[in-house]
Specification:
Number of domains: 4
CATH superfamily of the largest domain: P-loop containing nucleotide triphosphate hydrolases
Strand content: 5-15%
Radius of gyration: 31 Å
CATH class of the largest domain: Alpha Beta
Helix content: 40-55%
Number of helices: 22
Shape: elongated
CATH architecture of the largest domain: 3-Layer(aba) Sandwich
Number of strands: 14
Structural class: alpha/beta
Largest sheet: 5 strands, parallel
Strand order of the largest sheet: 2-1-3-4-5
Distance between the termini: 55 Å
């Protein structure tokens, strides 16, 4: 967290000296002059440290220190006094002052006292933020996988984790982008500092601006005190901005400025703050589509995507599904004190064959539901949601036996090639072929208009874009006056 300090002393030179020492330790310092409303600024501000003359403490030193310490942030107070009486200094400390300073104290002693205070305050802030997020710790080692696709992805993640580069995560809803971001933070040199997450789609533009950048007193109706934003709270740590594609044009500009200058300006303030934050963003939107539609700035996209991480959907890592089901069933068995401790072969077959449009989040919910509904110690097909139970209709269709049992059924010429693959591999290839065929059919019918094609298919346009990207199907070839298609399409090759 970025620490703030107010300095209010009668000596401008001494205030300057203290300001230089605190700035060198990474604090944002505000110096208040004789004519400034010290107590108005203290009560309305958001601060961690007040350095002030004993004479400036409102209502006497004991009452003044008590007022400051009673503020929401409980700022530390350092009192400057020329009273060398040890008993008086003891009274100041007993009233709640962190330390006392005087003109007789050397610059080195002053530096050491302030450094001790800064260290204590930093540890307190970090402890508070850690406690608030103690249940969300994750490591890259948690991502055990048998999927070649996921292994390749995690290898890339490990190469970029311990860096300060800005990362852009793209992937479907529910693939675990925030969880992965927390793991990246835990593996980085910033792991001792805060990880702060914000979801752009959950807040209005005005509220999101205040949450990100903070605000000063009177910035808007109801802003009775200054408030720190997420950038300040994440100082020296990591800020995860989810659903970045939802940012308004105004906030896109402000975020771009932070990426360029590493400075923020709270809402309603004329003052800028230096921040040291690693930024990780995530979206389930296709930002290339958003840029083409002029809804997302290209310059911001290139700043965010120094490294782009495309998180694989669960259906692309089907090798992991069975192990994940078992793991989450065990978790919910323990947490809910239920009997279910296994999954039947039939139920597991359906779970593995399912497409998981909601990805890992959906799998977790299904596991919880199954454990809750199971009446024995084994989860059966009846304990699964209907859409998964229906997978049995396509998993193992029953064929009528041949009329003459002494004769073998006819074999197709591709049987040998087919049997070289596992059931799930063959099924996945056939489903992919179907997707390509269907996508091309709806695009042809809609003359390349994706919105219309999605409407025909009864799916979300975003989902259709993702399938087109997956299979490298381009809408341009299906417009009314299409360009010359590639050679393989001109030659009549079908997919």
């Amino acid at each position: 967290m970025l620490l703030r300090a107010f300095i209010a002393t009668k000596s401008a030179n001494y205030a300057k000296q203290l300001g230089e020492l605190l700035t060198a330790d990474g604090l944002h310092v505000t110096t208040l002059g004789k004519k400034d409303n010290l107590w108005g600024a203290v009560r309305a501000g958001s601060l961690d440290l007040l350095v002030t003359d004993e004479e400036l403490l409102e209502g006497g030193f004991a009452a003044g220190i008590a007022v400051v310490r009673a503020l929401p942030e409980a700022p530390e107070v350092v009192v400057f006094t020329d009273n060398e009486d040890p008993a008086h200094r003891a009274e100041l400390l007993a009233a709640g002052a962190f330390a006392t300073l005087s003109s007789s104290v050397s610059k080195e002693e002053t530096r050491l006292a302030l450094q001790t205070l800064v260290k204590r305050r930093t540890e307190q802030a970090q402890q508070r933020l850690t406690v608030e997020r103690a249940d969300t710790n994750s490591r890259l080692g948690d991502f055990a996988t048998a999927s070649p696709t996921m292994r390749e992805f995690l290898a890339l993640v490990k190469r970029v984790a311990n860096s300060d580069s800005t990362l852009l995560m793209q992937g479907e809803t529910g693939v675990g982008k925030e969880y992965l971001s927390r793991a990246i933070h835990a593996e980085s040199a910033r792991s001792a500092f805060p990880f702060i997450a914000v979801n752009c789609s959950a807040l209005s533009e005005a509220l999101l601006e205040s949450e990100l950048f903070g605000h000063v007193e009177g910035a808007f109706t109801g802003a009775q005190r200054a408030r720190r934003g997420y950038f300040e709270l994440a100082h020296k740590g990591t800020l995860f901005i989810d659903e970045v594609g939802e940012l308004s044009p105004k906030l896109q500009v402000k975020l771009l400025r932070v990426l360029q200058d590493r400075k923020i300006r709270p809402v309603g303030s004329e003052e800028e703050f230096d921040v040291d934050v690693r930024i990780i963003t995530a979206t389930n939107r296709d930002l290339s589509v958003e840029m083409a539609a002029k809804r997302f700035r290209a310059d911001l996209f290139y700043r965010l995507s120094v490294v782009s991480l495309d998180v694989p959907p669960l259906r692309a890592r089907h090798e992991d599904i069975a192990a994940m089901v078992v793991s989450h069933v065990e978790h919910f068995r323990v947490t809910m004190s239920r009997a279910a401790n296994a999954v039947s072969d039939e139920a597991m077959e359906r779970l593995v064959a399912y497409r998981w449009p909601g990805n890992v989040r959906e799998l977790i919910n299904v596991a919880e539901r199954a454990v809750l509904l199971c009446e024995t110690n084994i989860i059966e097909t009846r304990d699964l949601p209907e859409e998964i139970r229906r997978m049995g209709d396509s998993i193992a269709p029953q064929e009528a036996p041949p009329a003459n049992l002494t004769e073998a059924p006819e074999s197709g010429e591709d049987d040998e090639d087919l049997l070289e693959k596992s059931y799930h591999e063959a099924r996945r290839e056939m489903l992919d072929a179907f997707e390509v065929c269907y996508i091309k059919a709806v695009l042809k019918c809609s003359h390349g208009r994706v919105q219309d094609a999605a409407s025909i298919a009864g799916i979300n346009p975003r989902s259709l874009y993702e399938m087109m990207k997956k299979h490298d199907v381009r809408k341009e070839f299906y417009k009314v006056d299409p360009p010359t298609p590639p050679l393989q399409e001109r030659s009549g090759t079908r997919h």
